[in-house]
Specification:
The chain has 138 residues and is α+β, with helices and mostly antiparallel strands. The protein is 47% helix and 13% strand. A hairpin with a 7-residue loop joins strand 3 and strand 4. The mean pLDDT is 94.
Amino acid sequence: AIDTMFTHMDALVAMIHGYSPTTKIGLIAPVPPAATQDPFGQNYKSGQTRWQYRRNQHRTVERMTETYGGREAENLSLIPAYVNLDCYRNYPQKAMPANSRTDATITRLNNGVHPAAAGYRQIGDSLSSWLVAMLAEG
């Protein structure tokens, strides 16, 4: 799956730079999953674990770094939005029973891979910082 993703990403970069080699391209590395296994159990039952998703995300970031890292002279940059994302507080949460035998509720994360609005704003902050840096270069 990573090979397929990179085939498409290479084609997209080539198309953009084929049209305009001076266009600055920023590739946002995939962000990590929510901080706990809870949302993966809720979203995917036994079909996907946080560990599996995190491993795949990490391998993709490694491959992006190997393939696209250090290519700023070619107007190609990596945007590490994953370092700015709060995976505990900025993924969707839901109040639910603490366990099957209690009326007490706790708040748990309930989406393993899609941040809440605040998380997307944090990703936007990373993108905005990159854009400001690119505009400052002229």
